[in-house]
Amino acid sequence: MTTVSSAEPTRRDFLYIATGAVGAIGAAATLVPLLAQMNPDASTVAAGAPVDIDLAPIAEGQIVKVFWRSKPIFIFHRTKKEIDEAKNVDVNSLPDPESDAERTKPGHEQWLVVIGICTHLGCIPLAHQGEYGGWFCPCHGSQYDTAGRIRKGPAPRNLALPPYTFLSDTKIRIGEESAKTA
């Protein structure tokens, strides 16, 4: 007896191919979400990522607020008068002694970058307010000067400085400090 093989596909061949294709699609549909859930979500990635800020549109005397790691960051383009006032303060008279030079980057004294959270109870202070022209926290009366230093009120420390570096004269990166400054 001789077996003859037909070159024509049979119904059984079609079922094998169709079953294999459905199985492959099902496996891919299962693996894609399984692998994707192993990656951190976008908010986690963004929370730790550095933020680049273009300083060019910020006018002299203006304070802008940006967010980094869900914290408000105040970027203050100080005038010459505001810089001089901050430099002329007797550091020893301050509750948290720190000179203006310690709070800015060399060569970029016109830019003050601070975390906009009051060091007393974590409120958000108002810009260009208070007796010293810097920030005023309306919750409990803390007043900061144009260098973000506590001058009056219950706050124990100056406004904190975030890690940042100048990428150029008109661009900073918040969240990454390096020895390189422009």
Descriptive key words:
alpha+beta, 4-stranded antiparallel sheet, 25% helix, 182 residues, rod-shaped, Rieske Iron-sulfur Protein, 3-stranded antiparallel sheet
Structure in words:
This protein has 182 residues and is of the alpha+beta class. It has a single domain, classed as 3-layer Sandwich (Rieske Iron-sulfur Protein), CATH 2.102.10. The protein has helices spanning 11-36, 42-48, 80-87, 100-103; strands at residues 51-54, 63-68, 71-77, 111-115, 126-127, 133-136, 143-145, 150-152, 164-168, 171-174. The strands form three sheets. It has a four-stranded antiparallel beta sheet with strand order 5-6-7-8, with no helix packed on it. It has a three-stranded antiparallel beta sheet with strand order 1-10-9, with no helix packed on it. A hairpin with a 5-residue loop joins β5 (126-127) and β6 (133-136). The N and C termini lie far apart (90 Å). The model has no long low-confidence stretch (mean pLDDT 88).
Q: How are strands sequenced across the largest beta sheet? A: 5-6-7-8
Query: Can you tell me the CATH topology?
Result: Rieske Iron-sulfur Protein
Shape-level CATH architecture:
3-layer Sandwich
Q: Uncertain spans, ≥5 residues at pLDDT below 50?
A: none
SSE blueprint:
Layout: H1 11-36, H2 42-48, E1 51-54, E2 63-68, E3 71-77, H3 80-87, H4 100-103, E4 111-115, E5 126-127, E6 133-136, E7 143-145, E8 150-152, E9 164-168, E10 171-174
Antiparallel strand pairs: 1-10, 2-3, 3-4, 5-6, 6-7, 7-8, 9-10
